[in-house]
Amino acid sequence: MTMLSVQDLHVSYGAIKAVKGISFDIDEGEVVTLIGANGAGKSTTLNTVAGLIKPDSGSIKFNGEELVGIRPHKIVERGLALCPEGRRVFTHMTVSENLDMGGYTRTDAENNETLEVVYEHFPRLKERTNQMAGTLSGGEQQMLAMGRALMSRPKLLMLDEPSMGLAPILVDEIFEIIQALNKSGTTIFLVEQNANMALKVAARGYVLETGKIVKTGTGAGLLVDDDVRKAYLGG
């Protein structure tokens, strides 16, 4: 069953055309990745789906309901959450307070229940409940950003560059968590510079170049595609 359907999406920043008529679908239960070089339009796509950017034209349907024109917090309430590029944790707030912010659309009882689920996926956050987010390591801040997004109990979690700036051992850990989240029932839309890791965990992938989707296929298929290997996988 199709969960997210984006059709003929166009997005501009003034005179700059950032996204040029892209279309893609994500089915319930999938991990789907969007790969491409810096400036290709990947983050713009996620931010537009999340309601943070207004598109010039096109359709974004989530479980059959049009999202274009709906305010971002209402999109979160419908079950779609974004974990943004660069983590953007509230550095002068504790881990617990950051997680509370992620559950602002839900009741205290619901958040208490969800918090236990988040701590199961991220036991390190439980150890640091009262620690200021700004004093966490980069990997811990990424876990906190993901945990904060999960507090809204999303049906679809969008992750923007979750491995950026992390040591290789932490990248492996983050991708293991992504797979665990998916196995527990969360559909995932992944934007990631580490195309090799992204395609290994994704059922399907889309390749974005200068605002246009130029290739699509299974994650396994794109891993061995000559053009993809030369452009994104180091040959």
Terminal-residue CA separation = 35 Å
Determine the strand fraction and express it as a percent band. 25-35%
Identify the strand order in the major beta sheet: 6-7-8-3-9-10
What's the helix count?
Answer: 10
List unreliable stretches of 5+ residues: none
Biggest sheet architecture: 6 strands, mixed
N-to-C order of helices and strands: EEEHEEHEHHHHEHEHEEHH
Integer average pLDDT: 92
The helix fraction, in percent, is 25-40%
Structural class: alpha/beta
Number of strands: 10
Query: What would you report as the Rg, rounded to the nearest angstrom?
Result: 17 Å
Keywords:
four-stranded antiparallel β-sheet; 235 residues; 10 helices; alpha/beta; single chain; six-stranded mixed β-sheet
What do these coordinates show?
By secondary structure, this protein is α/β, with parallel strands linked by helices. The protein is built from ten helices and ten strands. It has helices spanning 42-49, 72-77, 95-102, 108-121, 123-127, 138-150, 168-183, 195-201, 219-223, 226-232; strands spanning 2-13, 16-27, 31-35, 57-62, 65-66, 80-83, 156-160, 187-191, 204-209, 212-218. Strands 6-7-8-3-9-10 form a six-stranded mixed beta sheet, with helices on both faces. A four-stranded antiparallel beta sheet has the order 2-1-4-5, with helices on one face. Helix 3 runs parallel beside helix 6 (138-150). The longest helix has 16 residues, at 168-183. It starts with a strand and ends with a helix. 41% of the residues are buried.
